[in-house]
Structure formats: C-alpha cells, structure tokens
Amino acid sequence: MKLHSTVDRVTERIRERSRDSRAAYLGLIDQMTQRQRGADRMGCANVAHAFAGMPTGDRFKVVAERVPNLGIVTAYNDMLSAHAPYAGYPDIIKHEARSLGATAQVAGGTPAMCDGVTQGTPGMELSLFSRDTIAMGAAIALSHDVFDGALMLGICDKIVPGLLIGALHFGHLPTVFVPAGPMTSGLSNKDKAKVREQAAQGLVGRKELMEAEQKAYHAQGTCTFYGTANSNQMLLEAMGLHVPSAAFVTPGTALREQLTREAVRTLMGILPQRRFAPIGRIVDERCIVNAMAALLATGGSTNHLIHWVAVARSAGIHIDWDDFATLSEVVPLLSRVYPNGSADVNAFQAAGGTGFVIRELLDAGLMHEDVLTVREGGLREQTRVPVEGEGGFSWQETGASGDLSVCRPATEPFSPIGGLKLLRGNLGRAVIKVSAVPDDRHVIEAPARVFDSQEQLQKAFSAGEMEQDMVCVVRWQGPRANGMPELHKLTPPLAVLQGKGFRVALVTDGRMSGASGNVPAAIHVSPEALAGGPLAKVRDGDLVRLDANAGTLEVLVPAAEWDGRENATMPPALTVESGRGMGRELFAGMRRNATTAEEGACTWL
Ligand SMILES: O=C(O)[C@H](O)[C@@H](O)[C@H](O)[C@H](O)COP(=O)(O)O
Ligand code: SF4
C-alpha cells in the first residue's frame, strides 16, 4: 500500500529538521562500530576484571574463542508487578546464549519506580526524573563496553523510555527489548474505578476499597489497563525492537519463556558478524513516526508525548507536538482498551493485539514498512503471532479482529482520528487524550478554580466546595516546579462531579497517568507556571474554555486586563528548598536543568 501523503510529509519534515543532529549521531555510531570488539581492544586488566565473575568456561570462550558476549540491562525489582517476573530472566538468557555458542552477563541494573505505588504520594515527584536516572543507569551498565549486543529488561512507564534513551546513547549496539507480559485479568478496571468513586463519596470504606484494589492488582505481570506501560509495549512492537507479538503473553507460561529465548536468538541474528542492525540505525525517523502512529491508533498514554520526544532526541531526531497533531488527523483509532473502553489488555491480545494494529496501519499506508528491525522480515514480521505448540511455538499470520468492540480494521475505525490532540491558546500549548472522554465533554467552558497542589483540590472536594461547573487549574506541577507528577488521584473526585452532571475539566502543567481518562484534562501545559507560563496568571472565577474539537485552550479575559496581570508565585512551602523530604532534594539539579514537556523534559541536554 502506498504510504499516506501526510505520514510521508511529517516524516520528511522531521528528517529535514533533524538532518545535522542525525548525521552527527550516525557518524558516532560508525566510529564506534569500526572499533575492535571489547575483549581485543581493552587492556588486559580491564578484560580480566570484566570477565572474572564469569564461569571459567565462559571466560575462556569470550576471551580466547572470541564468541559474542551479550549484555543484559535489567530493571528487575519486586515493587512493580510487571517487573517481578524478570528475577529469573538472566539465567534463562545465559542458558540460551551458551546453547547458541555465546556468553551473556548482567551488565547492570537500573532503578524502576512503580507509579501505582507512588501515585498521589510524595514519591511521584521523583517519577519523571527516574526516567533519565534509568537512562544513566543503562549507560553505566553498557559503559563496561565489552558487549556485542544488549538485551533490555523493562516494561513500565519511565523504564522503557529510560532504557531506550540509554540504549540509543550506545546506538552502535544491536539491542532487543524483552517483555514479561500482563497479569491475568482480575476485577475489571471499570468496576475498580466505580468502587473508587464510591469511596471518594464516602459510600464505601477502606476495607471494601482495599478488597477491590487487590482483586484488580492480584498477580505478577503488567497491570491490565492500557496505560503507559502497555503503551510502551505497543510502541516497541511498532518500532521493531521486540520479538513479534511478545508484548502481551502471560508471565510464567511456557510460551513466555520460549519468547525470552527467541529474544536471545533474535539478538544473535543482528550482531556485527551477522545481519548487523544496531539500535541507532533501527531507530530512524521512519521508526519514530511508526511509533507515533501506533500511539495515536491505540489512544495510548499521554506520557509518550513527552517520553518519545526525549527518545527521538537520543537518536538525533527532533519531533514535537505539531507532528503528533498532524498525524492524529489521519491515523484512525483502531482499538478501545481501558481507559478508552472497557476491555483490558488481555482482551486486546485475544482480539488481535499489536500484530493486528500494525497490520492494519501498514495496509492503510499509515506506517513505514521498509524499515530495519531486529527481525529479518522487517516491520511486516511484527504482524505475526507466536502460537504455542509441541515443544515450542510456530508463527501464524494475524487474522481478522477477534472482537470488533476492542479492535477495528482501518476500514471501519472507532474514530477517523487518533486518540490524542494538541490544544493551543493564550494559556499555552497542552495535550488531551480525547479517546477516553465522552463526546459531550470535548468542549468545556466554565469558571476557573485555581489550586496550587492536588491536595488542595482533594480537600476542596471533600469539603463539598466543588458541586458546580468548573475548570480546575492545578499549577506548579511542571518539570521544574516539582518534577511534573501524575495527578491521577484527581480522576475519582472529578469523575464523581462529572457523573453528577457538572461540566468539569482539569487544566494543569502536570501529567496524568496513562490510565487516566474520562474527565477532559488539558495537561502538560507549556510553558509551565514556574517558568512564567500563563497558568501563573489565572484567577478564581476567570472563564476558561477547553475546546478539544477546535484544539483550543483559552482564558476569556479581556486582553488588556490579561496582559496587565502579574504572575503569581509558587508558594514557598511547596518548593524543594522548603525541605519536603522523600529524596526530592536529590533531583533538584534535574529539575533546574529540565527542558519543557514539549521538548521531552530532558535533563541531560
Ligand atoms: O501512566 C500510567 O499508566 C500510570 O502511571 C500507571 O502506571 C499507574 O500505575 C497508575 O497509577 C495505575 O493506575 P491506578 O493508580 O488507577 O491504579
Ligand atoms: S503498570 Fe503502573 S502500576 Fe502497574 S506495575 Fe507498571 S508502573 Fe506499577
């Protein structure tokens, strides 16, 4: 199918804007590629230290026989249900590598934060910058520089973006990402949200709420809503950095282990001595556009409008929210997974999953097909599905949708446009996930109520002060102010108000979770209030209009008055300097150095 002209145009303008930085990036990759392999290039002491911890047989192989040595970067810990399965992965990988005549080492571990654990708590103010900390952790691991390829073990929110940013700073290395799969379905996300709203109104107590939450989150594996973690998986498949359709296979199954071993076989196939495919060449402008298309087609997490800007930047590629907005005009919505619908990611997988979405987008000319990936067959390979069989698995072509309420073909999409939209106006630039908002709530015009923290809003709600149409402006939530936390805990109170018929919206320079959804929220407002952004001028009672159809976000105050207003200042008690603890002070340097949300909130530039 011929590539859609808009996809072609956006790719071209990204290529044009990135020409110099991409050329410099590829130049570095070429330099690194031309070096001898680590065990031959480095000093004897360096090499001896590098392999002293290996079993003797492996040590001999990697130094004397010069067999490939694979580096494992793992974000394993027990705090993320999604990452807990990784505990046993290094041994499986080493076993498979040996069987293929290679060796493997855990090059290093990285931190990994569970946003579900920290949601609504002080720890969430470390979350965004844990991404770049993870990238630095990956760099520290790979800087041992004795690897012929890398396997990245990470799934959740900031971890995949962080591992990708880190890996792309070692763009000369062939790299495969290794997923661990979603937990089996428990209490549905919709039923969980209902109990939360009852609790927010005092209709059920902590005991009932705890029961519901533990029925929802009940096993190892990724949470089953289509939030940032599962959006990460969809994008890695669309970028051709995974074994095909490996994303959503349940942990602990025979097929899961087979797919982990297949990841090692896949990496062996793209080493310098084979079909050389270093990650820095796989992740080119077309690959990034393919990821953007997959995000829009699935109504993925709004967090990717920040993270993928940083990921692209790490490969010398510059993208912005206008690129997403232009693609969103032609990329249809092909899946409805909570919060964009009631199905969960297991139902998505059963209905066709990542392979179905990629096949539909390729056939509609909405993705680049002629791209380099970790697999011989290019991106079309990602439309195949592994089916368990005698002693292993076989590959099948993805078929028609198994459930049209979950996955739709591009010929009859849920919506002709993607799930994310850009908003512009005198309050700055912002984004909104429209795919999860009821149609009659895409335009909200109401008086503003200004909050300096999410706690202030929750207090006002509990005091019954919010029973009216209202645009809640929550400011001082940007990267430089307090690390741009997710304000997902505001979803239940706002959903209660919306359920009572009030016309409510959230406008913030903060983030929402990928699991947030049914209340209209203009988020990532840039420039942020602390950087002199317009949110610092909004006052209680100002009329604010959020129009997701027109793509506007405005305060309806006479220009002369608006221009004449002084910016409010961030309350000192909310600043890191006030000594708020929980390690937030350690990230002060990253806050000071962070670029805007639209520039990826990068802290290393
Ligand atoms: O971006 C995301 O997808 C979220 O950060 C997600 O990872 C987070 O854990 C949610 O908070 C979970 O949802 P609940 O908080 O509703 O359980
Ligand atoms: S999806 Fe979110 S809540 Fe679930 S394990 Fe990952 S980070 Fe934690």
Automatic annotation (TrEMBL):
All copies of domain Dihydroxy-acid/6-phosphogluconate dehydratase C-terminal, residue ranges: 406-601
First-level EC class: lyase
Protein name per its UniProtKB record: Phosphogluconate dehydratase
A family per Pfam: ILV_EDD_C
Gene Ontology cellular-component annotations: cytosol
Pathway in which the depicted protein is active: Carbohydrate metabolism; Entner-Doudoroff pathway
GO biological process: D-gluconate metabolic process; Entner-Doudoroff pathway through 6-phosphogluconate
Top-rank taxon, per record: Bacteria
Record-annotated Dihydroxy-acid/6-phosphogluconate dehydratase N-terminal domain positions: 68-381
Catalyses which reaction(s): 6-phospho-D-gluconate = 2-dehydro-3-deoxy-6-phospho-D-gluconate + H2O
Family recorded in the similarity comment: Belongs to the IlvD/Edd family.
Cofactor: [4Fe-4S] cluster
Function: Catalyzes the dehydration of 6-phospho-D-gluconate to 2-dehydro-3-deoxy-6-phospho-D-gluconate.
Presence of the UniProt keyword Methyltransferase in the record: no
Keywords in alphabetical order: 4Fe-4S, Carbohydrate metabolism, Gluconate utilization, Iron, Iron-sulfur, Lyase, Metal-binding
Signal peptide positions on this chain: none
InterPro entries named among the record's database cross-references: 6-phosphgluc_deHydtase (IPR004786), Dihydro-acid_dehy_C (IPR042096), DiOHA_6PGluconate_deHydtase_CS (IPR020558), ILV_EDD_C (IPR056740), ILV_EDD_N (IPR000581), IlvD/EDD_N (IPR037237)
GO molecular function: 4 iron, 4 sulfur cluster binding; metal ion binding; phosphogluconate dehydratase activity
EC number(s) per entry: 4.2.1.12
Residues noted as binding [4Fe-4S] cluster in the record, renumbered to the chain: 156, 223
Cofactor details (free text): Binds 1 [4Fe-4S] cluster.
Gene3D superfamilies associated with the record: IlvD/EDD C-terminal domain-like (3.50.30.80)
UniProt key word Hydrolase: no
Originating species: Xylophilus rhododendri
